[in-house]
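Why does residue order matter? Because the sequence determines the fold. Keep that principle in mind as you read this record.
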Amino acid sequence: MKISRFLLINIAIAFVLTFVFTNVVGAKSHGPDVTKQLSEVRQATAKYHDIEAAFKDGYGTDYHLVPNMGIHLTNNDLLKNGSNDPLAPEVLVYEPKENGDYKLVAVEYMSLGEERPSLFNQEFEDGPFPGSFALHAWVWQGNPDGIFASFNPNVENVK
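Structure:
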């Protein structure tokens, strides 16, 4: 009986760890180099869990809510310089909470121009307006559709 209970507990722990790990990094592995780069992105953007820090660093207060994405705060200076620095994303994405707080869920890289850029071995998708390209990285919120998917069904649409 003790062996069966022990075995069931270990299976349950393994299941929970697998579920948590999959939700954090997405279902697809992108290799150790990309994993390291994404860890560096998390370190560089950790201070933006405080939305006031984002405002202070030039991320705009003129934001818009996109269902299953969240509220996008754009840093126009970063967008204009066109560098697509992985550690300085052009856009921060927040999920609005019912209590009025905001949860940082993703970063978005945006580029203007004719050439489609890439980061993290991913080509940017067509952006939200003509002549733009974008790449989301769900580094702060698990996404069952993948870390680089545009939309995230785990992001609530607070009304």
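Residues 2-25 form the longest helix (24 residues).
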